[in-house]
Amino acid sequence: MMYFETSFPIRYYETDQMGIVHHSNYIRFFECARNGMMADGGYPIEQCEADGVTIPIVSVQCRYKHPAKMGDIITTSAAIDKVPLAKMVIRQEVRNQDGVVCASGEVMLGFLDKETGHPVRCPEKLARLIESRLNDR
Q: Cα-flanking dihedrals φ and ψ of residue 30, to 5°?
């Protein structure tokens, strides 16, 4: 599987009055890992769009398990199990500094021609990148 993770501290603006991370931020944390994975692989999302393909979110599933809190250092990860054709499924997870899973889920992305908005297959550069890293973990 292609795998990537990144860590950062919970910021004050991501929490509510009780110091608990607001549920909507986990979707942003997922995005940090997805974008980081593409950049780390040498094909950042900006390049994909410059090549004429956008990657919109089709669906997001998030399961909340344990609250992340102000002061936590979280690790967010993204994993791709197979080379996509028309849709890309990414498994995602957020853990705190103790390794406790705070949230997990799955994001499905599509591929659209930037000019026409019509569905297209996964860009060849991205497919090759994923294929080359299927043994990451």
A: -55, -45
